[in-house]
Amino acid sequence: MPALSLRGLTKSYESVLAVRSCTLDLWPGQIMGFVGPNGAGKTTTMRCVCGILSPTSGRVRIAGHDLGDDPIGAKASLAYIPDDPKLFDALTVWEHLEFAAAAYRVAGWKPKAEALLDRFELAEKRKALTMELSRGMRQKLAIACGYLHDPALILLDEPLTGLDPMGIRVMKESMRERAAAGAALLVSSHLLALVEDLVTHVLIVVKGEQRFVGTTAEARTAFATREGAALEEVFFSATADRPTDNSTPVNGS
């Protein structure tokens, strides 16, 4: 089954339509780049998917759990890491992992937490309060906490912001590893050159409307003006002022 299934997801704020009828399937092992100009509705869509915001209409299913009918099951199957994670300043790095393990009822979590600390170069900071961490370290801690319960769906909003070159490499490797292990990832980023070699699929939105969803190869076929075009070129072509094309849902390919 899809890790994420959206059918007609719509979110409006009084007279403002932030997300209009988003429909897609994201399958295990896929990494979808979620791109669009500022104000296109990317963060609103993610917040609706993870239950922070209530959709105005439409359905959200996460790993087979309907978010409206089974919110606990749906939320237990995902991890959401926003662009500016809000951590607990009075807790240490290790205590954050302990809290995440308790919240998601992760059995035998300590070896997994130790491995994540090593993976994200946080082992030496395990006793540090999060208020003492740099922006990049806070980002890595939030992602480590999100990975701890092995979610089926991982939502990442600008995950590379604030990271140094080594941190970016480690982060991208970790995302590939999660996909290889069977998770599906939805990655929102303006750093198209950095995520181009990472994503397998792309969702392009403009002013809340779904302009394209499909594989990166299909996106190039639809929008590129030359062979071997970079994802950035595809993005500019796709977001040009033209009628919206709501493509069919992503299949299992």
Task: Provide structural commentary.
The chain has 253 residues and is α/β, with parallel strands linked by helices. It has two domains: 1-77 and 152-253, P-loop containing nucleotide triphosphate hydrolases (Rossmann fold, 3-Layer(aba) Sandwich), CATH 3.40.50; 87-150, no CATH class. 34% of the residues lie in helices and 24% in strands. It is built from nine helices and ten strands. The protein has helices spanning 42-49, 71-76, 93-103, 109-119, 135-147, 165-180, 192-195, 216-223, 231-238; strands at 4-13, 16-26, 31-35, 57-62, 65-66, 78-81, 153-157, 184-188, 201-206, 209-215. Helix 6 (165-180) links the parallel strand 7 and strand 8. Helix 3 packs parallel to helix 5 (135-147) and helix 8 crosses helix 9 (231-238). Residues 243-253 have low confidence and may be disordered.
